[in-house]
Amino acid sequence: MAPRRISIVAHTHWDREWYEPFQTFRLKLVHLIDNLLVLLESDPSYERFLLDGQMAVVDDYLEIRPENEERIRALAAAGRLSMGPWYILMDEFLVSGETIIRDLQAGMERGASFGGATEVGYLPDMFGHIAQMPQILRSAGLANAVVWRGVPSVIDKTGFWWEAPDGSTVRAEYLPVGYGNGAAIPSDAKELVRRIADHVEEIGSFLLDGLLFMDGTDHQEPQPWLGRVVAEANALQDDFVLEVTSLADYLAGAPVEGLTRWRGELRSGARANVLMGVASNRVDVKRAAARAERALERRAEPLSALYLPAGQWPRALLEVAWKQMVRNAAHDSVCACSVDEVVDAVNVRYEEARQIGNGLADQALLALARSLAEPGPVVVNPSHRPRSGIVEMVVAGDDLPADTQALPEEAGAFGIPRGLGALTLDANTVRTILGMLPAGSQIDAHTWIQGVQVEEDETGIDITIAFGSEERFDVPIASIKQDLYTRLGARPDTAVRIRIDQPAIRRVLAWVADVPGFGWRRCLPASLAHPVTVSEGGRAGGDEGTGAVVLDNGLVTVAVDSETGTFAINGLAGFGRLVDDGDHGDSYNYSPPLKDTVVDTPASVSVAIGERGPVTATAVVTAHYRWPEQVDGNSRARVGEETVEITTTVELRAEERIVRVATEFVNPCRDHRLRVHLPLPEAATHSEAECAFAVVQRGLVAEGRPDEFGLPTFPSRRFVSAGGLTVTHEGLLEYELVDIDAGAGEAAGGSAKTLALTLLRSTGMLSRLGMAYRPLPAGPITAVEGLELQGRRIEARYALCLRCDDPYALADDAFLPLELVHAPGGGTRPDVGSALEIEGAEVSCVRRQAGMLEVRVFNPNDRPTTVRVGSRSGWLVDLRGRTLSAFDGSFALGPFAIATFRTAD
Questions:
Q1: Fewer CB within 10 Å, N side or C side of the chain?
Q2: DSSP conformation class of 266
Q3: What is the DSSP track for 124-189?
């Protein structure tokens, strides 16, 4: 019998931040790589080392030791040091598909500067894997993946074919017991042989041929005796042939015949924890991620690419923002299964990325406004599909245009009431006001300085400031301010009289129709075919129910029950029922307490009418609940009582079938989970949820084991559909189908009547021992106060639609508003137009790359499509920018396929 080959890959698994903050871990990283470089350079028998498949490790080290870059480059070029292909080892479900691609591209680009990144899709510790990962890897030229968590029980060998929904396939190397099966190799050769023999016996049924022995684990230092002990082990026995190698070299000879094929996502807990509760802890982080992704992907990049001159593409700022996003994608970061210092840093990075994104988007919108031929308000559509919707605009005079809705009056500029006569102020106060004036002439979203007149006599200085809604760039604000400072300096005791000249204006909501995709249209309020109205005293749910506030636009009727605080949509009652139960779990997993108390009925409810139409109408529900204060550590029962006030605003707009919901409260309690229950129009045997570049179908159960209960809570990126209901949300990633009738449905497997959306999961432990749903810890048993979110304001936004035809359009309509700009006139663009026409696919990315416009599209359907791009021509490219084929006006896109193309302006 031939000896079994044992392929040893020396590595470290480097969590950039986790149970210690980044800088604390980096101190250890610097020490590790300092020693590693000496070891590799001085000991040829220590042949290879894998730097965890992520380039962030290299950059974090070189920021402290820049003088060692050439040493690292030399070792990488010699094949001794493997790095990449990722920039960071990300979580795949909690970040956008575009973030995953930018992560891979950044890693491969950085790796190229060291001679090339590892040509292996190394995915060692992600909490499950998205369905489209094989297609992403293939589009980057990678044919192999290495995985651990999420592999289902039907996979019973260390190799299998993993297929994406479009048919793209990679060979996946499965690590049955994880990335540390060879960690801490003993320095004694006999002990090493015994350990290998024991491990082969443990997993022998999985082995196709040789054994991949991963010599490393979390933050493990390289073991300097590796080369020696391997040589000694080979000399003293004939059962095994040990070699120190790389993942790429091992996989080049791995068996490919007769492998099992698996299609789709990997989310099974059959042999390893998938830690599904990370989707719902620290909901503030998930909301921040959603807002930052939207700012960059849907606003900053497409608007800058389409409306700024090519030479003004803000590459440097976008790279800063994307580096923050990619760093946050690390699973211990976005998953928030970390100490408070880490999560605080994550939130700061998301906020900085959002600020950059929104700031760049505003600059691009300003550029578009200045390029338009005629002056006046213009509506801009940041999505690729033609859209209609609501905008807030300013109209002159006191008369309200037809089919618009007045908003509450605001004070004038600087808070000065409109129509007020002259104010007499001293010089110091005027200096303060001058300091408030911006460098430009824009005061706020609706107000611009039209002119400043200064007159002076022996009685004082008279300043008249004219404000208006017309955008002006020709008012010399800086020189006016300097002149006034000079006058005030010469007469420090004089009286200054300020007069505000501001015409009567009204802020109104208007419905605008048919704004082209990636385009603009002159803002003209449209007539309302389906205005929204408000009435009181109706019924909340068909023939049953109590007095209600009813919102109705002829397409949808929403009746808010004044006793329960729930609402009915088109007669289907029970939406918005809040259910609070105990959570004695940790950052990784929900787990019920031994003695739970479930609260789903408010102690009191009041319903008030907010906006009254015709453009938008709202009902505001204020409910008080009495929740248990915490879970007692000894009895494991919910104890105590706290009263919480929860405000839920239900909104219906004209011309829409969407019901928007916003829930806010300050969390007073610990150790609990709050979910909103949403009834399904029809019983459902499965859900369909958005994940990266796809919509995946999931059943009512999840595969688990005694070490981790298979709780069927699942993540969705922006929306989930089941039983005729579609829910789109802002960072509320976790859902579950509940109220299951076991005697009905698909092959009597059951059907669900309700979708539960998690609004909050409050737990104070990073990891815990002895949980009902996961008995063993998943990380350090560390108390983390921030995970409770106690005393924090929770804001949850979601929208509902019955019988939704296009959930992608629903997500855009709910959370990507139309934009309004004020054009000064004098440009060349017409009143209506589109900067980029795309039909036939969803759009993930519009940016500038290699001097061209780069667009990424995907087909989320099981039918082929034709992507039409107007008169544009160009080239389809892979994720490395390599040309695949040319196109002219259109190209074919297969079912579930992703494509990237480049085109000239």
A1: N
A2: B
A3: SS-SSB-TTHHHHHHHTT--EEEE-TB--TT--SSEEEEE-TTS-EEEEEE-TT-TTTT-S--SSH
CA distances from 452 to 370, 442, 790 (A): 22, 13, 51
Question: What does the alpha-carbon distance between residue 290 and residue 95 come to, in Å, rounded to a whole number?
Answer: 8
Measured from the Cβ of residue 310, the count of other Cβ atoms closer than 10 Å reads 12
Judge if pTM exceeds 0.85.
Answer: yes
Q: What is the CA radius of gyration of the chain?
A: 31
State the DSSP string of 758-782.
EEEEE--BSS-SS-SS--S-SS---
Distance, CA of 145 to CA of 124 (rounded, Å): 9
- DSSP-derived letter for residue 685 is S
- Residue 776's φ and ψ, nearest 5 degrees, are -100, 150
| 544: confidence class by pLDDT, cuts 50, 70, 90 | very low
Structure tokens at 700: 């009512």
CB 646 within 8 A of CB 676: no
Looking only at the bridges linking them, the beta strands covering 496-501 and 460-468 are parallel
The mean per-residue pLDDT over the stretch 699-704 comes to 97
Name the token pair of 870.
């107007």
Question: What values do phi and psi take at 418, rounded to 5?
Answer: -65, 145
State the amino acid at position 374 in one-letter form: E
What's 527's DSSP letter? P
Q: Which of 175, 209, 159 is nearest to 3 (CA)?
A: 209
Does residue 606 register a pLDDT over 90?
Answer: yes
Site of tokens 């309700």: 754
- Which of the two residues, 867 and 2, has the higher pLDDT score? 867
C-alpha to C-alpha distances, 175 to 3, 87, 164, 210, 402, nearest whole angstrom:
21, 22, 20, 13, 66
| Higher local confidence (pLDDT), 420 or 381 | 381
Q: Where are the beta strands (DSSP E) in 321-386?
A: 376-381
List the one residue out of 506, 403, 369 whose CA is nearest residue 446. Answer: 506
Report in angstroms the alpha-carbon separations of 51 from 48, 250, 602.
Answer: 10, 16, 54
In angstroms, the CA 768 to CA 774 distance is 9
Phi-psi region of 332 (alpha: psi -120 to 50; beta: other; left: phi over 0): alpha
Three-state DSSP class for 368?
Answer: helix
Distance CA 829, CA 811 (A): 29
Residues in a beta bridge with 801? 726
- Span 703-709, average pLDDT: 97
pLDDT at 545 over 60: no
The token pair at 706 is: 């005694």
Q: How far apart are CA 861 and CA 135, in angstroms?
A: 15
Ramachandran area for residue 39 (φ above 0: left; ψ -120 to 50: alpha; else beta): alpha
d(C-alpha 593, C-alpha 490), whole Å: 74
Q: What's the pLDDT score for residue 543?
A: 43
Structural tokens at position 662: 């916003």
Distance between CA atoms of 125 and 148, rounded to whole angstroms?
6
Residues in the chain: 905
Is the CB of residue 821 less than 8 Å from the CB of residue 380? yes
Closest CA to 653 of 616, 679, 621: 616
Please write the tens of the pLDDT for every residue from 340-364: 999 999 999 999 999 999 999 999 9
- Residue 323, helix vs strand vs coil: helix
At residue 435, the pLDDT reads: 74
Q: How far apart are CA 263 and CA 519, in angstroms?
A: 38
Pairwise CA distance, residues 630 & 567, whole Å: 29
**CA-CA distance, 407 to 510, in Å (whole number)?**
11
Q: Return the ∠ at Cα 458 (arms to 455 and 461), rounded to 5°.
A: 35
Closest CA to 125 of 779, 710, 784: 779
Q: Between residues 248 and 544, which one has the greater pLDDT?
A: 248
Going by DSSP bridges, is the β-strand pair 169-174/159-163 parallel, antiparallel, or unpaired? antiparallel
pLDDT, tens digit, 9 for 90 and up, residues 155-175:
999 999 999 999 999 999 999
